[in-house]
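[worker-b] picked up task from shared queue
[worker-b] task type: protein-ligand structure
[worker-b] ligand name resolved to nicotinamide-adenine-dinucleotide; SMILES cross-checked against name lookup, match
[worker-b] sequence length check passed
[worker-b] input payload:
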Amino acid sequence: MRMALHWPGVWATGASHVHLDVTDRAQRAEAVAKASAPSGGLDILVNNAGIVNFGSIEEYSYEQWDHIINVNLNGVFNGIKAAIPALKASGNVSVVNISSIAGIRGYEALPGYTASKFGVTGLTKSAALDLAHYGIRVNSVHPGAVLTPMTEGLALTTSHVALNRVGRPEEIAELVLYLSGPESSFVTGAQFVIDGGETAGLAHHPVVGPED
Ligand SMILES: NC(=O)c1ccc[n+]([C@@H]2O[C@H](COP(=O)([O-])OP(=O)(O)OC[C@H]3O[C@@H](n4cnc5c(N)ncnc54)[C@H](O)[C@@H]3O)[C@@H](O)[C@H]2O)c1
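[worker-b] inference finished, payload out:
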């Protein structure tokens, strides 16, 4: 895929992509090598890949647990570890980890997802402390429900959300863009909730049913 990227004051063309499985450490190293080849360093790392699986802890399987921890948490760890040398080679660097509001509060029937996203929250803060002296900032983003392939087919109720709607992917992207750029130069180790007010408290919008 070729695309143009607009950054304040900069136009870059010819972006490229590399396929990788975030659980595969060798592939991560290859991807970092390719991404950093043109300049010798890496300026931005966004750890976004994630999966969801469901089940009350009673019936939730060990396989479900291992799979989701491997992708959602080990994947972020692998990403940061593989990128550190290339990140150190750049001047002003940002790592953005996509967690969830399930990374700051519990959800029924989501034991693995919640644990993995809490893990990302903690890993973010720890990495921010470890890497700050290299000028590497690390922050986490915590979306509420967003309409993407991950949530397709799920009954996403919004009566408990202050803004009474789900989010759009581009709204999350704007926050990631802010955290990736120089506008957030004094921000590290922080968690950014972007959830339409879902975790602010309990909203009570009337539920509109088919008969209304
Ligand atoms: N959609 C939501 O409501 C929501 C809410 C909070 C957080 N999130 C988080 O946002 C991130 C993006 O999710 P999304 O909603 O765009 O879902 P999505 O399913 O559209 O995107 C997830 C992407 O991760 C990729 N992926 C899965 N396993 C992978 C692996 N092993 N290696 C490489 N890539 C892999 C998938 O191919 C897919 O492209 C995830 O971390 C998710 O947990 C989503």
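[worker-b] attaching auto-annotations
[worker-b] The first helix runs from residue 25 to 36.
[worker-b] releasing lock
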